Amino acid sequence: MKLTNDEKAVVARYLGSDPSWRGVLAAYWPFLAPSLIAGTYGVYDQNHIACSIGFILLACFAMWFFYHGGKEGIYLRSALEKYEQEVSALGEQPYT
Question: What is the pLDDT of residues 35-63, one digit of tens each?
Fold first, then answer.
């Protein structure tokens, strides 16, 4: 089965990732912490600018997350389609 370098990278990343809550928090805390700190400070100090900055940072993170998730999803789907074709060509039953 011939996978592109992007497909190999995405498959390796998915297989090496930790799907637990602890793993997700460990992976994304650097992106979430600034928005949470700015938002918390804004609420505590009643500073609307800090709350706005926290919200904007969180919205930017969400857009980045969805963009890269969709991009990686395309490569993962392509790799899985190649796997499906390979298994079907061998006459084996794929996982259902």
Answer: 889 988 989 999 999 899 989 999 999 99
Using DSSP's 3-state secondary structure scheme, residue 9 falls into helix
- To which H or E segment does residue 20 belong? none
Q: Tell which phi-psi region holds residue 46, choosing left (phi > 0), alpha (psi between -120 and 50) or beta.
A: left
Q: Note the pTM of the prediction, 2 decimals.
A: 0.64
3-state secondary structure 33-87: HHHHHHHHHHHHHCCHHHHHHHHHHHHHHHHHHHHHHHHHHHHHHHHHHHHHHHH
- Cα 59 to Cα 17, 33, 79: the distances in Å are 24, 13, 30
Task: Supply 96's token pair.
Answer: 């259902």
Distance set, CA 78 to CA 1, 69, 72, 89 (Å): 12, 14, 10, 17
